[in-house]
Design brief:
Blueprint (H helix, E strand, L loop, with lengths): L1 E3 H4 L15 H17 L3 E7 L5 E6 L10 H12 L21 E3 L5 E10 L7 H10 L6 H13 L3 E5 L8 E5 L5 E3 L5 E3 L5 E4 L4 E4 L15 E9 L1 H11 L4 H6 L7 H17 L2 E2 L4 E3 L7 E6 L2 H6 L5 H10 L3 E5 L2 E6 L9 H12 L20 H11 L1
Helix pairs in contact: 4-5, 5-8, 10-11
Length: 398
């Protein structure tokens, strides 16, 4: 994950060894402290470099189960927790009201879609502002036009992919989400032709496939003549996305994120953010109600954590107050009760499922380096070999 530091600094204060010293040496010292702390918290620095414009970019090796970190805001939240500094979230706009029976989207493959939120906008296509062109280039994405650039910007900012379809290019003016037909043809926006199977989720109009979960189609993209778009963001079955992407050899920024276990509640946040920017930079205006397919709403998970559990698993005695502060800094709601903490985990932390996961969060922010160096004590457990392995060894010997 490429993280331009100027972009990251929009949401959280980055460390500086000498606050009054703006020299390159002092800035590098602060950047080293940042990357060292991120590495120690589990996000190893792969490399760092300067762009042609002198912008510092760090590349972090992220674990596949941390889908929240595939957005700059997610990385900023980690920095906020590590350095105990406030997190600043961007401005959002209100979405249009949701229609109970919307004709904008038809879902015919519900087993492959967890959430699909879409609405129609009028827009004015033009070049993106200089700051947007520059920040996308720093990350590594080319500028196309203001609408496409904003969808790409918000995808990297929040970690939630989205796509805009030109309404005039959609037969019937609506989207149909269905399984593709065997050997159905699709041409990507890059001009590459592929053959689909019935295992692939296809985003279609009334006559043809106009998009896949990881890439849009050549015939439905936003161009200089576009006046109306359907803007959508979704969470799909991540295993299905991965299988389709690998079989077709289509690796994209959107597909990389859709292959992770995304938070369906993030869809709404991302579209609110995109709408804020589209109103400002593309003169966007609402056209009707939104369609929100979300049959099984995901709610925060409640986990009980015994006060002694962190010490039992790590060997480090951490005050209950500090445990609560660390979890709260990561976005959890914490209620302290006698001998136990009741933790409500935000839905964007799809990797936290049980109390041991909470202990991992506590110790990595508290500091792995604080785990004492002690020899193991107690008796070794008896050796237990599964019957299947014992039988295989016996057959091998015979």
């Amino acid at each position: 994950m490429n993280v331009p530091l100027t972009w990251l600094a929009e949401y959280v204060v980055l460390p500086k060894s000498l606050p009054t010293d703006t020299s390159r040496q002092a800035m590098q010292a602060g950047e080293t402290e940042l990357t060292d702390k991120l590495t120690m918290a589990g996000h190893m620095l792969n490399r760092r470099w300067l762009t042609d414009d002198g912008e510092e970019v760090i590349d972090l090796e992220l674990r596949g189960n941390r889908s929240d970190l595939f957005g700059i805001i997610g990385v900023a939240r980690e920095v906020s927790a590590i350095f105990n500094t406030p997190l600043k979230l961007p401005r959002l706009s209100n979405l249009p009201t949701t229609a109970n029976q919307s004709k904008l989207v038809s879902v015919e493959a519900p087993d492959l879609i967890e959430r699909f939120l879409a609405f129609k906008l009028k827009v004015k296509i033009g070049p993106s502002p200089d700051w947007l062109v520059k920040i996308l280039a720093t990350y590594g994405l080319p500028s196309i036009n203001n609408v496409v650039d904003i969808t790409n910007y918000v995808m990297v900012e929040t970690g939630e992919p989205m796509h805009a379809y030109d309404v005039a290019k959609l037969k019937g003016g609506r989207l149909i989400l269905r399984r593709a037909k065997k050997n159905e043809k699709f041409i990507t926006l890059l001009g590459t032709g592929v053959n689909l199977t019935s295992q692939d989720l296809a985003i279609c109009d009334q006559h043809k496939v106009v998009g896949l979960t990881m890439i849009g189609g050549q015939g439905s993209g936003v161009s200089e003549n576009t006046t109306e778009v359907i803007l959508e963001s979704a969470v799909y079955n991540q295993a299905n996305v991965r299988r389709t992407a690998r079989r077709l050899n289509i690796i994209t920024e959107a597909g990389t994120r859709h292959e992770k276990l995304l938070d369906p509640n993030l869809v709404e946040f991302a579209l609110k953010r995109a709408l804020e920017l589209l109103i400002k930079h593309a003169q966007a205006g609402m056209l009707g109600e939104a369609c929100d397919y979300y049959p099984n709403k995901r709610t925060p998970r409640l986990i009980r954590l015994a006060n002694s559990e962190a010490e039992r698993l790590t060997g480090v005695k951490i005050a209950v107050k500090e445990q609560s502060q660390i979890l709260a800094s990561l976005g959890c709601s914490v209620l302290a009760k006698k001998e136990v903490l009741e933790i409500r985990v935000p839905t964007y932390r799809t990797d936290i499922e049980q109390s041991a996961d909470l202990v991992e969060e506590i110790i990595r922010i508290h500091g792995y380096e604080k785990i004492p160096t002690l020899s193991l004590d107690g008796q070794l457990p008896p050796i237990q070999t599964e019957n299947q392995i014992t039988f295989a060894n016996l057959v091998r010997e015979i």
